[in-house]
Write a structure and sequence with these properties.
The chain is of the alpha/beta class. It has helices at about 25-30, 60-70, 125-140; strands spanning about 5, 10-15, 35-40, 75-85, 85-95, 100-110, 145-155, 165-170. It has two domains: about 1-60, no CATH class; about 75-173, Trna Endonuclease, Chain: A, domain 1. It is about 25% helix and about 30% strand. Helix 1 links the parallel strand 2 (about 10-15) and strand 3.
Amino acid sequence: MHYRRTGKGPVLILLHQSPLSSRDMIATMQRWQRHFTCIAPDTPGYGLSDPLGVTHAGMEDFAQAAVEFLEARGWRVVERNWRCREGEIDIVAMEPDGRTLVVVEVKSRAGLRFGAPLETITYAKACRLRRLAALYVRQSGLRPHLIRIDAVAVLWPRGGACQFPYARGIDEW
């Protein structure tokens, strides 16, 4: 997967509307490059990225491409769809520093009729994710220095471009 990279500092992955190229992120990257290492991928099949290699790409195909992108940048996806009696964690990953465990909540919607996807993450849901993250760490035996909860929305309106708003650090400890 092709990507643009610029700057120095903590890594900031910029996700844009899809299907489009990372060209839409150039101005943002120029603004933030003094403070962050900015990385913006092209959606598979757009910009300079190769297509996914399937006739009709579905949500799981794009999700897998995103996981592969994170892994190629040094993230280690530890679990997908981890379940226990108390609930489920969509994605568990370690950042490249090896010190930060990231629990990623994925929310999707076909439109905004019932609100934006990230609006569905209530305080109660964030507390539940925190409890699940603690259970995961206890069960897995991992000992991260930091634990962070992020959220990614998949907004896929009929006939419109797919968008992936990302909320970093909705909870961190």
